Amino acid sequence: MAALAAAPDSDQTGPAVLRGGTDAPAVPSRSVVIFSGIQPTGRKHLGNHIGGIRQYVAGQDKAAPAIYCIVDLHAVTVEYEPVKLRERVYDTTAILLAAGLDPERCILFRQGDVHEHAELSWLLSSVTSVGELNRMHQFRDKSAQQRRLVSAGLLFYPVLQAADVLAYRADEVPVGEDQREHLELMRDVAERFNGRFGETLVLPASRIPEVGARVLDLQDPARKMSTTGATEQGTVYVLDEPGTIAKKFRRAVTDSGSEIVRAEDKPGVTNLIEILAVVRGVSPEAVEHDFAGRGYGDLKTAVGDEVAGWLAPVRERYEALRGDDSQLEGILAEGAEKARAIAAGTLADVREAMGVGPARRSVGPAT
Ligand code: TRP
Question: Per CATH, which fold does 242-321 belong to?
């Protein structure tokens, strides 16, 4: 059986109201649903900002709706402190708002507030094979890092992630390269579900950005910039002071030679060129052209200053937003209500297709 293509126009069971009701803002004629999830780690770095958050902001103008979820239920699969988790959710909410997410133009919510995710995750686990879960690289890596307990939640992590996306019948999922496997798994899950229970779920496409998808550690350009396992000096945080940012770039490890061009054996210089291209909104070629005949020192200073200037307003807005927990909570609560309105419809369809609970009366949801 052919799986439902990611074409909302033909998706009769989709949330028609949110896809362009009469008083909805002007939306493209074929509206696209975007969904992504983000871990509630307080410290977001330049790689997260360029590869993830920036796509979220852009998605607001493209999707109807763009849905972004702070995944506290995923965060509990490894060791953590409950009080800190709540704080990290607020940190992340404030960072996303500071970076340009607008609760009027997107749905921003906390995963744990929408119970439909957990139930859908359980139902989808019936069409997920343990073998597949056990082969996931992220599961292998994270389970090797656990000192006390490898939780069943860690193994089930990708099923919950599939539920996150499938609950909204999302067409596109902007994520980093590291999430490719999870995306493939969720497509398999949706396809298997549709094959066994009838066309119900939409197969999402991943959207992995080309430029800036891999921001490398400034001290160790063989590795991705990351909060865990990278060097502190090589990791630029969105909330770093401008002086700190400039210093980290000035000390960036570059490669032998002196020419400012991208090359396989010049990962350090390539990284700086690509970062500057993103900040300037130009192509990497344009940056190379600009720096022809100049030295590495010039490049490092320019990238440092320009990244610092680029992130400064984000840091300032963050500081203004982060002090007010109740305002943040209000934004998340409103987002959860909008999210639930969509997810509940999908969950009802899934329950119906699987024969869970009483049969739906023929009146059913508006189609
Ligand atoms: N696993 C993702 C990460 O570690 C976060 C995530 C959870 C997610 N649910 C999602 C991403 C749904 C995309 C779609 O980054």
Answer: Tyrosyl-Transfer RNA Synthetase (1.10.240)
